[in-house]
Design goal:
The chain has helices spanning 2-76, 98-111, 142-150, 166-192, 196-228, 242-245, 252-302; strands at residues 85-94, 115-124, 128-138, 154-164, 229-237. The chain starts with a helix and ends with a helix. It is 70% helix and 17% strand. With 303 residues, it is an alpha+beta fold. Residues 1-67 and 75-80 have low confidence and may be disordered. The longest helix is centred in the N-terminal third of the chain and has 75 residues, at 2-76. It has a 5-stranded mixed sheet with strand order 2-3-5-1-4. It contains 7 helices and 5 strands. The radius of gyration is 58 Å and the shape is elongated.
Length: 303
């Protein structure tokens, strides 16, 4: 009985000891959990605060980054194509000496990097000269040359025009690229062709497309020439002389000259009339002479 009670007593002690250990473990676990919870809250608060600070710093950093991105996009944005314009002008200027003015116009065009495409000089009424020039000058010197030529003398008339052919230039360039690709394709087909009929057909097609390409290239060269160099047509005329300009209010000298001209004209007409009547007068004179001779002979016989 004593042994059994001892065993029960030992088991009770062990149970009590286990209960105490369990309570101690739970107490320590609770303190650790509370400590961990508070630490976690503190950590979450620190992380949140650090995150807010990082977001703020990132926001400040994104502002210049966004600005630089916009600048980069603006730099990468393709600029619009340059305009292609055909400029022409016509001038008529009255100058004292057409030859000197023409030489000045030639020098002005050449100094600007242009050329004289055509020049004609002729004498009008045998008293004054006129010059006709066609000048080609670079587009950037067009306005300056035009002002210089307009001030060479008395400006009689001036006209100018500008035609934008940008769309035509772009279209021609695109058609040339397409036509070149087409010619290249036909040539590749010719290299692969084995039958004579295919070769003949492809040669005809190649000739047609090559002709179209050459036509487009000529059009492109013409557009480039007309948009690179402006055309100025210049007419230089000398003023009329005082004698030619004074058609009204004739003076004594004019009247005397007119009278003498009329007198000479009358004598010329009289001379022409006498010349026309001379044969008839000669015949009449001969007949009169014969008649008088016959009368004298008759009178002598009657006596």
């Amino acid at each position: 009985m004593q042994g059994a009670s001892f065993i029960r007593t030992g088991r009770g002690r062990r149970t009590a000891s286990a209960a105490v250990l369990l309570a101690a473990v739970l107490a320590l676990g609770g303190c650790g959990a509370a400590s961990n919870a508070s630490d976690s809250k503190a950590d979450r608060g620190g992380v949140a605060e650090s995150g807010q600070q990082a977001d703020a710093a990132a926001g400040k950093a994104e502002e210049p980054a966004a600005g630089s991105a916009r600048t980069e996009r603006q730099q990468k944005t393709p600029k619009p194509a340059a305009a292609h314009v055909i400029r022409t002008a016509s001038l008529s200027v009255e100058v004292k000496d057409a030859s000197k003015a023409a030489a000045h116009a030639r020098a002005t065009a050449q100094d600007a990097g242009g050329l004289v495409e055509k020049e004609t000089t002729e004498r009008v009424d045998g008293t004054r000269d006129t010059s006709h020039l066609v000048l080609r000058v670079p587009q950037d010197a067009y306005d300056e040359v035009l002002r210089d030529l307009s001030g060479a003398g008395k400006l009689v008339s001036r006209t100018s025009a500008a035609k934008d052919v940008t769309d035509q230039v772009v279209d021609t360039d695109s058609r040339i690229a397409t036509q070149r690709a087409s010619v290249a394709r036909v040539r590749k087909l010719m290299e692969r062709a084995e039958k004579l009929a295919d070769v003949v057909t492809l040669e005809g097609e190649l000739s047609s497309r090559q002709a179209n390409l050459e036509s487009l290239l000529a059009e492109q060269a013409s557009l480039k020439d007309r948009t690179t160099l402006a055309t100025i047509t210049l007419d230089l005329v000398e003023p009329e002389t005082a004698a030619e300009a004074a058609d009204d209010d004739p003076g004594f000298t004019d009247a005397l000259a007119g009278g003498w001209h009329a007198f000479v004209t009358m004598l010329r007409w009289l001379a022409m009339a006498v010349g026309a009547a001379a044969p008839f007068l000669a015949v009449a004179a001969v007949l009169a002479l014969l008649w008088r001779l016959l009368r004298r002979r008759r009178g002598a016989k009657g006596e």
